[in-house]
């Protein structure tokens, strides 16, 4: 028996808001979360802007002792997971057994900040000054580990590390765990915190990021002729997935149903995307959902605002949907949130769920001069009311990792 799976809780940590209401209203207002970086001195960097979370105090939220044991990406993961669990109404040990709720919270890079800080200590003061918490704070699985420890979730516990496809892979694998009966509920998504000197320097050296420093809010411009690279973001997007039977039995609010999951490899290049791989991924997700391509109403695009990436995804959508590609609404919310790397898939699946529930498609802001090679309907600059039934979220990562999630407006 394959169980139907629904979304019953959501939690976000983004530069646009740390709660669903603020986050959604910011998206509907077409607000950009991009600004000058304040975390460290960026005067020597080609890119000096990011979608940085500037008003998060981990010590206030978790207490000084606990906060100091967690890298920033883990703090984001736990904060968003707590919010998502509260939103769902699940109480571990009461209306869900601890052994029947699992965690799959991935990160593309993991504890980069901890790595930097401890490496500096090593160089400046020697090996004896390196913290005993260095390794358990830095490793990428500690998002899932700390969420499990803090919330008491004793079910399946895994961590995905597939670059920018991480969040979507985490959701898709959680879907499978519930479908086959290995868990009644999963806390899943992604978290990332790489707005750090090394992270920024690495992406700058790749020439992957925008250098539109004088206009931060206009810098992320997917599918626009004047785009020149992505804007890094940070934060977390966490969903509570639950079997329909379990959710119905406790009278849970249901945002949407997760009906399809696709994944593929480009087997092509470390960083350059291949549209054939992305197209196969979307086709697999559509097939898994048991729908025709014509049923897709909205695609939340990977849409990073890089010249090559946006063109490649446009080609992939056409290969996957055929003529329907010109009829489907496509938008990139990275134009507002920045690119949250491993957390992007979690945040964007949440956006799809809210779009289905509210009947509104979020826009692609800063789309002033559409690239002729990107010739689909990208919902430019303002949100659009729409009767949505099916939404699809794309995530593509370095290494040729592709993931697509399909969500459906919930019908009992």
UniProtKB/TrEMBL annotation:
GO terms for cellular component: cytosol. The keyword Lipid metabolism applies. Its EC number is 2.3.1.179. It comes from the Bacteria. Keywords: Acyltransferase, Fatty acid biosynthesis, Fatty acid metabolism, Lipid biosynthesis, Lipid metabolism, Transferase. The keyword Transferase applies. The active site is at residue 164. It catalyses: a fatty acyl-[ACP] + malonyl-[ACP] + H(+) = a 3-oxoacyl-[ACP] + holo-[ACP] + CO2; (9Z)-hexadecenoyl-[ACP] + malonyl-[ACP] + H(+) = 3-oxo-(11Z)-octadecenoyl-[ACP] + holo-[ACP] + CO2. Residues 2-409 form the Ketosynthase family 3 (KS3) domain. Gene3D superfamilies: 3.40.47.10. Involved in the type II fatty acid elongation cycle. Catalyzes the elongation of a wide range of acyl-ACP by the addition of two carbons from malonyl-ACP to an acyl acceptor. Can efficiently catalyze the conversion of palmitoleoyl-ACP (cis-hexadec-9-enoyl-ACP) to cis-vaccenoyl-ACP (cis-octadec-11-enoyl-ACP), an essential step in the thermal regulation of fatty acid composition. Belongs to the thiolase-like superfamily. Beta-ketoacyl-ACP synthases family. NCBIfam families: fabF, PRK06333.1, PRK07314.1. This is 3-oxoacyl-[acyl-carrier-protein] synthase 2.
């Amino acid at each position: 028996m394959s169980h139907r799976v629904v979304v019953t809780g959501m939690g976000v940590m983004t530069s646009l808001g740390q709660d669903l209401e603020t986050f959604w209203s910011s998206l509907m207002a077409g607000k950009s979360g991009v600004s000058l970086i304040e975390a460290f001195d960026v005067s020597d960097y080609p890119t000096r802007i990011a979608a940085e979370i500037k008003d998060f105090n981990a010590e206030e939220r978790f207490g000084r002792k606990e906060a100091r044991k967690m890298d920033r990406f883990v703090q984001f993961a736990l904060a968003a997971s707590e919010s998502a669990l509260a939103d769902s109404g699940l109480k571990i040990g009461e209306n869900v057994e601890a052994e029947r709720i699992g965690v799959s919270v991935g990160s593309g890079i993991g504890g980069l900040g901890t790595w930097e800080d401890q490496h500096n200590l090593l160089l400046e003061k020697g090996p004896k000054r390196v913290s005993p918490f260095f390794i358990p704070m830095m490793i990428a699985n500690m998002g899932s580990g700390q969420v499990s420890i803090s919330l008491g979730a004793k079910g399946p516990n895994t961590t995905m590390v597939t670059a920018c496809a991480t969040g979507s892979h985490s959701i898709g694998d959680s879907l499978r765990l519930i479908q086959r009966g290995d868990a009644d509920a999963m806390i899943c998504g992604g978290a990332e915190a790489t707005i750090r000197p090394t992270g920024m320097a690495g992406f700058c050296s790749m020439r992957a990021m925008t250098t539109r420093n004088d206009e931060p809010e206009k810098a992320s411009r997917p599918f626009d002729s004047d785009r020149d690279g992505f804007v890094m973001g940070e934060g977390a997007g966490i969903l509570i997935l639950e079997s329909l039977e379990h959710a119905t039995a406790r009278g849970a609010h249901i945002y949407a149903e997760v009906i399809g999951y696709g994944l593929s490899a480009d087997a092509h290049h470390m960083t350059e995307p291949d549209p054939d791989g992305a197209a196969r991924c979307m086709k697999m997700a559509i097939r898994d959902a048991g729908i025709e391509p014509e049923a897709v109403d909205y695609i939340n695009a990977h849409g990073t605002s890089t010249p090559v990436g946006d063109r490649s995804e446009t080609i992939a959508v056409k290969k996957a949907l055929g003529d329907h590609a010109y009829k489907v609404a496509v938008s990139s919310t990275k134009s507002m949130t920045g690119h949250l790397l491993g957390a992007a898939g979690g945040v964007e699946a949440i956006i799809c769920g809210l779009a289905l529930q509210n009947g509104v498609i979020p826009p692609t802001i800063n789309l002033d001069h559409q690239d002729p090679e990107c010739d689909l309907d990208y919902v430019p600059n303002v949100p659009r009311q729409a009767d949505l039934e099916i939404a699809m979220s794309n995530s593509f990562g370095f290494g040729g990792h592709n993931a697509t999630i399909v969500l459906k407006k919930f019908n009992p």
